[in-house]
């Protein structure tokens, strides 16, 4: 018998009451960062807490909920002080979906549950210095040797690679095939000999990205995701899921963004009609983005691209509003909480790039969903 919405809510509430304290009241200096600047010690604590919390969610059946239940659970969860699952998101929403859709039964058995329970963390090793938007140009080579592949190359912008157990690597296995056809997706053990992770410092101050150098890293063929030279299709599964679950959702934006900006403007006496209109436009853009995610009948992949574009438009409006309200006090930390917004401003451009840039989303929508003529290649 399926559980009624009321029974589900009751069960969810009892679970959350048992495991989490209520969310503390917000203060003006609470962080609004989009890419958190986090020191290694705090990061290790966040990772431990995320793993523990994800294990509890998984074991209680709250880790993978469908649309309505996911919304109901998220609404309840927002009232509690829950651990941040950020360090696990690549494993949960990028790597696990590709293994589920394309992996062998053996691969699913070995990795799906540990990834979904948060026991294993993962990173995405797709981008390279000369392969970002044009991802099919990846040059990292994998050469067959008995039951294994020997992988050599350089990846870049690898979020969370410094604490990842696994890396989902798009590699070239047939250099003579047309570029989309010579690629394979491999699951690399990030602790294997030959894997070197070097942090990249961001303008927000933190270092959540890395360069990853792969020097003759051995990867068993049993850890291949999908068919040999069929890596492009498997990679698209990861990219679509990434857009749907991460880059393209309003969840990336602090939930009370408009309210907080209005509060700042009121405090400074600059909640003018022009400021109100600006905040109104921001609210409308965020509402539109949230609605697209819920629209029935819209192709989920198209919805993800549209939603990502709308979220990014909202972020641009938020940056404009925050700059107008806070002005020069964004530049220096005077201990009044305003500096929290500097992290927001500096992190916003990243979301326009991550998971495929805005220009690429428009091309995807035009070519794949609207059937418009293809961009010249
Ligand atoms: C927060 C964040 C996290 C990331 N995490 C990861 C990760 O974990 N793993 C990973 O592999 N990568 C990651 N990336 C990298 C990301 O996927 C790439 O940065 C992105 O695909 C763009 O590639 P690029 O940086 O090489 O820019 P380029 O592709 O060089 O693009 C430069 C500019 O040219 C434009 N452009 C390029 N091609 C076209 C075209 N055909 N038509 C119109 N305009 C075009 C782009 O829109 C952009 O404005 C991350 C990036 C960010 C910002």
From TrEMBL:
<protein>
    <submittedName>
        <fullName>Acyl-CoA dehydrogenase</fullName>
    </submittedName>
</protein>
<dbReference type="InterPro" id="IPR009075">
    <property type="entry name" value="AcylCo_DH/oxidase_C"/>
</dbReference>
<feature type="domain" description="Acyl-CoA oxidase/dehydrogenase middle">
    <location>
        <begin position="123"/>
        <end position="213"/>
    </location>
</feature>
<dbReference type="InterPro" id="IPR006091">
    <property type="entry name" value="Acyl-CoA_Oxase/DH_mid-dom"/>
</dbReference>
<dbReference type="Pfam" id="PF00441">
    <property type="entry name" value="Acyl-CoA_dh_1"/>
</dbReference>
<dbReference type="InterPro" id="IPR052161">
    <property type="entry name" value="Mycobact_Acyl-CoA_DH"/>
</dbReference>
<dbReference type="GO" id="GO:0016627">
    <property type="term" value="F:oxidoreductase activity, acting on the CH-CH group of donors"/>
</dbReference>
<dbReference type="InterPro" id="IPR036250">
    <property type="entry name" value="AcylCo_DH-like_C"/>
</dbReference>
<dbReference type="InterPro" id="IPR046373">
    <property type="entry name" value="Acyl-CoA_Oxase/DH_mid-dom_sf"/>
</dbReference>
<dbReference type="Pfam" id="PF02770">
    <property type="entry name" value="Acyl-CoA_dh_M"/>
</dbReference>
<comment type="similarity">
    <text>Belongs to the acyl-CoA dehydrogenase family.</text>
</comment>
<feature type="domain" description="Acyl-CoA dehydrogenase/oxidase C-terminal">
    <location>
        <begin position="229"/>
        <end position="368"/>
    </location>
</feature>
<keyword id="KW-0274">FAD</keyword>
<dbReference type="GO" id="GO:0005886">
    <property type="term" value="C:plasma membrane"/>
</dbReference>
<keyword id="KW-0285">Flavoprotein</keyword>
<dbReference type="InterPro" id="IPR037069">
    <property type="entry name" value="AcylCoA_DH/ox_N_sf"/>
</dbReference>
<keyword id="KW-0560">Oxidoreductase</keyword>
<dbReference type="GO" id="GO:0050660">
    <property type="term" value="F:flavin adenine dinucleotide binding"/>
</dbReference>
<dbReference type="InterPro" id="IPR009100">
    <property type="entry name" value="AcylCoA_DH/oxidase_NM_dom_sf"/>
</dbReference>
